[in-house]
Amino acid sequence: xxxxxxxxxxxxxxxxxxxxxxxxxxxxxxxxxxxxxxxxxxxxxxxxxxxxxxxxxxxxxxxxxxxxxxxxxxxxxxxxxxxxxxxxxxxxxxxxxxxxxxxxxxxxxxxxxxxxxxxxxxxxxxxxxxxxxxxxxxxxxxxxxxxxxxxxxxxxxxxxxxxxxxxxxxxxxxxxxxxxxxxxxxxxxxxxxxxxxxxxxxxxxxxxxx
Length: 210
What we know:
This protein is of the alpha/beta class. The protein has one domain: YjeF N-terminal domain (Rossmann fold). Helix content is 28%, strand content 17%. Strands 3-2-1-4-5-6-7-8 form an 8-stranded mixed sheet. Helix 4 links the parallel strand 2 and strand 3.
């Protein structure tokens, strides 16, 4: 059950907020990725495989992987197609590689206790396909939304990643189930207000679990 104090943010609203944050408030998207990666990494217990797509959700995953690497908790990073990563996510990928971490195109869960799902984010409009959709058998922590969930309708495609924990970035998205940790990534509350979502400042004074 959602807390009445926590409004949800749809995929369309999330895109608007991202644009406002950069254009009106002068906060680069890669700064938000840094905050997201930090928040995700600090909730990971045990050695992790970080599985990334090619968009902004992957950038959050690369940032999380870099922190896990520093803390000795990164087993490996797998990416659907690293050559297709662009923009702010590419900056995070480059920073990760500077730590000496290797990024593989093959999915391997060996030696990992946790799988971090950073394949698809709120922009998903189809089911995740191929080998990266199958991350069963390990504890799964999803970045913002489990891959396969449509964050506008709240409907899960088939196949979809089943997350044991979803780390919702900023605000929860429609359709989230199971354990959800809502974390602050530094989005100005005025940006939420501009898309019709009112958020009280005290909500982000501490970590919120649903």
